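Quick one, tokens below:
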């Protein structure tokens, strides 16, 4: 594509060099540059791309999109100056890849908890209904049936548009995407056209990045503020910030709830570890999911499918066939009669939801043993809250390691224990080694008990000192069985 066409939708402030040159690709990482590429110099949170312009040109870049044209600009290269490269990169990527979101229906899901379940179930549902569909999620990206491993909840704009273009090429009619708060603030979704947005809930998370809860809320809300009037916005009326999210959106607003009147409403009729019977908008349906939080997730899925033009009957039939997402409230039954639940819950609110769901099924007929930790180099303020939440709803709690990263595991555990009083400490033991913690829980469990192993879910590694060591909670549980 000609450089002139590639930057045609940007507010260009200055140009130095030939605008007629052919561009073979777009990169924000100088290490990925190949001959003929455009290098976009973005001022990131860790590094400033302007410091890597010469390196990009050495590797074969022929043009640079930047906020400052260097004083020692190289002859033969083209420099295009804009006010903000971070805001421009999404539009450039969209243009280069042929505006893929104008050729399929893209739905974004944002919130603290539930994003992965909702996006994945929508993807599975629309494939079940006979459509080709794509998924962009924390667990894995999919181009129809082809798995593409993922590094972040929301990839950078170039990777994102490349994936969406591959979906279009594969004939996908729909794409479902988790939208993280980071991706909104960092303009990773700039230039994309969403036909719908879903809000799950908002609780304390990522404060290491956003600094305040208000900033975190603003980041989520910005996604809805930017939706076009042709789109729909579905929000959780049970969350106190649910209506705040959509108060300035131009999109058509719909609500879902398990507690109050809403466009999409549900209640639990019956609940087991194998699934639930629900009433959704007056119709009964059996689903293979457990817990009130999953009723909310399934309502969001139901609402999105209806807004995408599917009939009530078709959606309910598909819902009954859907299975829980990898590492999200996965129940494993032991030969000796206790149940282990593996779940990704890594915030106080998520832990509360999962424990509520367990008690909803147990109804006091067994004990709950919770194994949990907190991630290193992340929001330290939630550590004592996690411990308190676990103790409040468990008979025994084992505090252990969960991706300590560059912190000492014992220090993280101490931060968690600091939130507990003397009485609460009687329920708790601390075991640094996660494998040993899981084994200990399995030894403690009696027939009819439930072990909750929280925090990692689908992850198959432990992140220690910058190295990812293989570790899978489900493998460990099965070994104990």
């Amino acid at each position: 594509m000609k450089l002139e066409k590639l930057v045609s939708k940007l507010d260009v402030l200055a140009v130095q060099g030939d605008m007629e040159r052919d561009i073979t690709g777009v990169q924000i990482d100088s290490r990925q540059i190949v001959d003929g590429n455009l290098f976009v110099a973005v001022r990131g949170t860790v590094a400033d791309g302007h410091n890597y312009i010469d390196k990009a040109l050495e590797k074969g870049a022929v043009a640079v999109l930047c906020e400052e044209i260097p004083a020692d600009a190289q002859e033969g290269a083209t420099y295009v100056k804009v006010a903000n490269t971070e805001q421009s990169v999404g539009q450039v990527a969209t243009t280069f890849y042929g505006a893929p979101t104008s050729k399929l229906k893209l739905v974004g899901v944002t919130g603290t908890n539930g994003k992965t379940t909702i996006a994945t179930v929508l993807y599975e549902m629309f494939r079940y209904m006979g459509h080709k569909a794509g998924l962009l999620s924390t667990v894995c990206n999919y181009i129809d049936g082809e798995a593409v491993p993922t590094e972040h909840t929301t990839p950078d704009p170039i990777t994102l548009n490349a994936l969406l273009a591959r979906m279009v090429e594969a004939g996908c009619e729909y794409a479902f995407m988790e939208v993280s708060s980071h991706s909104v603030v960092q303009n990773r979704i700039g230039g994309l056209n969403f036909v719908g947005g879903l809000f799950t809930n908002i609780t304390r998370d990522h404060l290491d990045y956003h600094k305040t809860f208000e900033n975190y809320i603003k980041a989520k809300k910005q996604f809805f503020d930017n939706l076009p009037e042709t789109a729909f916005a579905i929000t959780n009326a049970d969350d106190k910030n649910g209506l705040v999210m959509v108060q300035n959106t131009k999109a058509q607003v719909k609500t879902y709830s398990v507690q109050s009147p809403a466009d999409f409403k549900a209640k639990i009729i019956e609940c087991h570890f194998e699934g639930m019977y629900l009433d959704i908008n007056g119709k009964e349906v059996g689903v293979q999911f457990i817990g009130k939080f999953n009723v909310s997730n399934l309502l969001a899925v139901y609402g999105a499918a209806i807004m995408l033009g599917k009939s009530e009957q078709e959606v309910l039939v598909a819902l009954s066939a859907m299975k829980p997402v990898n590492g999200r409230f996965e129940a494993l039954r032991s030969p000796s009669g206790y149940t282990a639940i593996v779940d990704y819950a890594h915030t106080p609110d998520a832990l509360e939801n999962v424990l509520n769901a367990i008690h909803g099924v147990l109804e006091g007929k067994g004990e709950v043993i919770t194994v949990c930790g907190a991630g290193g180099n992340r929001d330290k303020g939630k550590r004592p809250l996690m411990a308190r939440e676990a103790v409040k709803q468990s008979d025994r709690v084992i505090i252990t390691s969960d991706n300590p990263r560059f912190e000492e595991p014992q220090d993280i555990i101490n931060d968690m224990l600091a939130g507990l009083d003397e009485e609460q400490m009687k329920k708790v033991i601390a075991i640094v080694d996660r494998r040993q913690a899981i084994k200990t829980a399995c030894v403690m469990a009696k027939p009819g008990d439930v072990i909750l192993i929280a925090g990692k879910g689908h992850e198959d590694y432990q992140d220690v000192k910058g190295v990812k060591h293989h570790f899978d909670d489900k493998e460990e549980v099965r070994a104990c069985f």
